[in-house]
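so my prof wants the structure for this chain in the tokens format not the other one, which i didnt know existed until like an hour ago. anyway here's the sequence
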Amino acid sequence: MKIIIVGPAHPYRGGIAAFTDRLATEFVAENDDVELYTFTLQYPSFLFPGKTQYSDAPAPEKIKIFRKINSVNPFTWIKTAKEIRMKNPDIVIFAYWMSFFAPCYAKMSKIIKKNKHTRCIGLVHNMMPHEKSVLDILFSPRFVKSMDAYVALSKSVLHDISKLDKKDKPKLFSPHPLYDHYGDKEDKLMAMSSLYLDTNYNYLLFFGLIREYKGLDLLLKAMADERIDNYPLKLVVAGEFYDKKEPYLQMIDKLDIKDKIIICDKYIPDEEVKNFFNLADMVVQPYKSATQSGVTQVAYHFEKPMLVTDVGGLREIVPDGKVGYVVEPTPVKIADAICDFYDNDREDFFENNIIEEKKKYEWSKMTGTIMKLYKDISK
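here's what i got, hopefully its the right format
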């Protein structure tokens, strides 16, 4: 198959770029001819609160990546779409996660499909973003209308697509595969040593970009629960603050938990990710809203138990009581789960179940879903 993927890719950083690169690598392993088309400008600076949009990691091997698309310059959309159309691919996959990109993707799809051969499939991470705006109402339907079929990474996203899809086009749910490119599972003590952490403590991990909807405030309040004092326990917060950092620091002081919290305030480069996951007893995602999360798939790769809140599609990926906990998004319920984990020595039980459960999230299942959709829309 000739496959082109449009979306974030190297040298951009972040979960969706990592997903695109890894998906392309899987298609190559299956002997498909794959190319990536990504951005010369992904976000205008006013839409990006982080320090940089770019990764220092090397480009993925054996993948052809073309930087052609300026997200705010329609002339580049047209030029790039014509270039893709001339290549006559069987499938063009559009990696979609926010309505800002809907006009670009819709215009490109319309031009590409004039070759009467190519099928356009939307690979939808989020249909409606966590922080909604008027653009979602105006632009999201344009993207949905322009696709021939859709893959959703959670059932909640599939539901959101269905509400916008007036023609009931083919759509399938395929869960987010494992992020298995960050290195191998290693000894906890080795990981602690690599990060210069005290080996006399146990560690929980909150990982990823810090935004209000991710609920770090709920976890900080849970860490202030007096029952947590019964354990030699610290919370590692590893990620760049996309919200203001000061309110969180003020909360830590007010709750008097400074000695329980370690903050690594930066974007964690690929080569360092393994150290943070390997040191953790459990990965905590106290989200207030969610669709799915790439962090769970990193945790699965490193065979780490998870504590997630019962929002969006997180319950679909983390079976409660089997590989971790699914709780209400409140500090008390989060603290209850942490106490149960240590009081009842759940770690080995959860890890043994994770070894089996993670088999559901192989990349071949994602490529297989895309191929099934392609066959459905090519009849």
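also thought this was worth mentioning. The mean pLDDT is 93.
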